[in-house]
UniProtKB/TrEMBL annotation:
Protein name per Swiss-Prot or TrEMBL: tRNA pseudouridine synthase A
Pfam families reported for this sequence: PseudoU_synth_1 (PF01416)
GO terms (BP aspect): tRNA pseudouridine synthesis
Reaction equations catalysed: uridine(38/39/40) in tRNA = pseudouridine(38/39/40) in tRNA
Enzyme class at the top of the EC tree: isomerase
Self-association and partners: Homodimer.
Gene: truA
InterPro entries: PsdUridine_synth_cat_dom_sf, PsdUridine_synth_TruA, PsdUridine_synth_TruA_a/b_dom, PsdUridine_synth_TruA_C, TruA/RsuA/RluB/E/F_N
Keywords on record: Isomerase, Lyase, tRNA processing
Annotated function: Formation of pseudouridine at positions 38, 39 and 40 in the anticodon stem and loop of transfer RNAs.
Domain annotation Pseudouridine synthase I TruA alpha/beta: ranges: 9-100, 142-244
């Protein structure tokens, strides 16, 4: 029986999604909880691997279960074995051809940024931070350059395992309320560090350190060395994947908790 789970986690304490020899990844904790609940080991596949310290509002995973359980039992049972900063949101039996990663048609991320002279304290690890003053229209103009189907090699980590650097970036929405900025990214798929590398470039343009023509040149050159440094993982949230409607799975989250909204 193939099961899909919706998962939420605060990533600050973990070395990303993918299993690590140290056992300090989200996947390690989820599979340990599933083993205790099911009674034997199962291997999970996720919709999108998140980096160390990156959060998720609705990560989706699938696995093949040797036992049958009601959906509410998967939620309550697995959660009883998970640490408090990881939680199963929902569970659903799916067709055998469902694949959490390959069946997804797009994915969404949000970066929450505090632009302030003083670093965050209460929201430490939950928001990114810059002391620069940012120009909204400059960043929106820069973001428009990246929309569409492009080779995003300039925004790709050297350890990225994606077969192709060509992705379709559907949308970047940027908004600001007070000194809190929201950057929403929607693409068919993302490369390793792609959002964080774009964030570094958008902040460089928004602060006046670079202009929009520079970002166009970075994109066209396809050289990581020409782009801005990778921005901090704090403040990055995987909102979740979109799937074809026939799978009947919940849509990605579109709103953050009120404290961060």
């Amino acid at each position: 029986m193939r099961i899909a789970l919706g998962l939420s986690y605060r990533g600050a304490a973990y070395l990303g999604w993918q299993s690590q020899p140290s056992g300090k990844a989200v996947q390690d904790h989820l599979e340990a909880a599933l083993r205790r609940f099911v009674g034997e080991g199962v291997r999970t596949v996720c919709a999108g691997r998140t980096d160390a310290a990156v959060h998720a509002l609705q990560q989706v995973v699938h696995f093949d279960s040797p036992v049958e359980r009601a959906p509410f039992s998967w939620v309550r049972g697995v959660n009883s074995f998970l640490p408090p900063d990881i939680a199963v949101l929902w569970a659903q039996a799916v067709a055998e051809d469902f694949h959490a990663q390959k069946s997804a048609i797009s994915r969404r991320y949000r970066y929450v940024l505090l632009a302030s002279a003083v670093r965050p304290a209460v929201l430490e690890s939950l928001v990114g931070w810059t002391h620069a003053r940012l120009d909204l229209e400059r960043m929106r103009a820069a973001a428009r350059i990246l929309i569409g189907r492009h080779d995003f090699s300039a925004f790709r980590a050297s350890q990225c395992q994606a077969r192709s650097p060509v992705k379709t970036l559907h949308e970047i929405e940027i908004s600001c309320q007070g000194n809190t900025w929201n950057f929403d990214f929607h693409a068919n798929a993302f490369l390793h560090h792609m959002v964080r590398n774009i964030m570094g470039c958008l902040i460089a343009v928004g602060s006046g350190a670079q202009d929009t023509e520079w970002l166009q040149n970075v994109l066209m050159a396809r050289l990581r060395s020409l782009a801005a440094p990778t921005f901090m993982p704090d403040g990055l949230y995987f909102l979740g994947p979109h799937y074809p409607v026939e799978f009947g799975l919940p849509e990605p989250a579109r709103a953050l908790p009120v404290l961060l909204a």
